Amino acid sequence: MSDTSNNDAGNLRSMTRSKKAILRLDQLIRRLEQSIVSKLHQGLSEVSAQLNQTYRREDGSLPPIDVISNSTIALSQLELTISDIKETLDQVRSQFDQTEQKSRELKHAQSNAIVHSAHIINELEETRQTLKEAHAAAEAAAQAKSDFLANMSHEIRTPMTAILGFSELLQNGEIPEPERSKAVQTIQRNGRYLLEVISDILDLSKAEAGQLEIEKRLLNPANLLFDVQNLLNDRSQAKNNTLQLEIRGEIPTVIQTDPTRLKQALVNLVGNAIKFTEQGTIRILMECDHQNELLSYHVIDTGAGIPSNQLEYIFQPFGQADSSTTRKHAGTGLGLAITRRIAEMLGGDVSVRSEPGKGSEFTFRIATGTLVDVPMITSLDDATTTRSTPLEYSSNSQIHGRILLVEDSPDNQRLIRFILNRAGADVTIAKNGEEGIKLTLAAMQAGDSFHLILMDMQMPVMDGYQATRSLRATGYTGQIVALTAHAMPGDNEKCLAAGCDGYLSKPIERSTFIPEVAARIGQISNVGKSIHKQMV
């Protein structure tokens, strides 16, 4: 680059000297023309006049004078020479101007080339930096996924080891009854945890694909808070923690949201607070922004806290604040990622602030729907008298009604009948869809219709989809709830399209199964009489 600059400078100096020389030559010719030629011409004119007067003949003619003639010729030649020099000078000047114009164009082109080259270099540098960052991000993502898969393997194999191991021990008839009871409890505990792992993975896959289902209903948010407390209170006490509920200001008695997803998010947040807190306090504070129609749940703990440089990672699907912490406390690390997606789908967000050694505060916000003419409460004592949604029943709720269970698996028949009978329900079994239709129509004709039908969707002879469509075709309007092991995106819609009123997935969990059944029975306590009247 420096050699090119030196050459350009030398060319410029050379062109400047040439231009000055041409100007000096032009001035010299002009002076020559103005001085010498004009003086010679004047002198010759004077000499010619004197000679004419001196040597004029008597007849008035002039004698031939060679000197004057030669001088005149010489003067004419001089004038021609000067004219040729001027013409040559003009040509030189024109060539110089052309050369100078080309030099300027070349200089401009070089300048543009330098600017363009600099722009290309900048773009290449930006591209290199972008590729470097993308490569680093890809490596980080690959490492995170590798860590996630390794963690998943650990989280699945650990409870499976306990389940299989204690199941094998139970086959030994010599085990004392207290030990058998502990073995059963261990199997149940690990089975529930394994189900949570699978559910988290499925929910995350649905959320990533934009297929996480939202079903908004009317809900009493304070009562849902009591449900979360009842569900997690034993876990909190096991770590010598106190679980407190509080409200600030006026809270609506009814909002419109998805109870299942809201409960899932709160269980994730409160469960995390319990996991990382020992001999401390977990507070769940609820408040409402009436102007923006937003309800906030603040989950505040006195646990270990989270370092500031790790806060940005805890809501990422494959990122955890610290993998060693995850191994210490167990868990998939997916709960907070799912919670964030739920908050967004419910019209809100989730945020966190934390101080290591002092604790953390997670704020979960959701849209309430319209609050016009909605009654308000200012104390949790006022919330215990109202039940507005099915999911606000507890796992200890009593069920008073007749239920038809259409299920082909004998093991599931025994299990579900046992759970429902303990809750007080009268259960009738049908082993396929065809038998279920016969029992349903017979009960209707006898004036003793079932309050609820739990319909397995995949059965021999006639599946649940065909059985439900057939019942609806007869005019049956009673409650039919799908009970199926299918839990992939689209299964819910498929069941509802067949005519089901609701959807419950297997394996069943008493804490959600009983409240759902109890709520539906409560809503239709007189359904049998009304259906019978319609058919008659």
In short:
The chain has 536 residues and is α/β, with parallel strands linked by helices. The protein has helices spanning 2-55, 66-170, 177-208, 221-238, 259-275, 323-329, 335-345, 410-422, 433-445, 464-473, 491-498, 510-523, 527-535; strands at 217-219, 242-248, 251-252, 255-257, 281-289, 294-301, 349-355, 359-367, 376-377, 402-406, 426-430, 452-455, 480-484, 502-505. It has four domains: 2-104; 148-208, Signal transduction histidine kinase, dimerisation/phosphotransfer (DHp) domain (Helix Hairpins), CATH 1.10.287.130; 218-390, Heat Shock Protein 90, CATH 3.30.565.10; 402-535, Rossmann fold.
Describe this structure in words.
The chain folds into four domains: 2-104; 148-208, Orthogonal Bundle (Helix Hairpins), CATH 1.10.287; 218-390, Histidine kinase-like ATPase, C-terminal domain (Heat Shock Protein 90, 2-Layer Sandwich); 402-535, Rossmann fold (3-Layer(aba) Sandwich). 58% of the residues lie in helices and 14% in strands. It has helices at residues 2-55, 66-170, 177-208, 221-238, 259-275, 323-329, 335-345, 410-422, 433-445, 464-473, 491-498, 510-523, 527-535; strands spanning 217-219, 242-248, 251-252, 255-257, 281-289, 294-301, 349-355, 359-367, 376-377, 402-406, 426-430, 452-455, 480-484, 502-505. The protein has a five-stranded mixed beta sheet, with helices on one face. A five-stranded parallel beta sheet has the order 11-10-12-13-14, sandwiched between helices. Helix 3 (177-208) packs across helix 7 (335-345) and helix 9 runs parallel beside helix 10 (464-473). It is elongated. It starts with a helix and ends with a helix. Residues 323-327, 385-389 and 525-536 have low confidence and may be disordered.
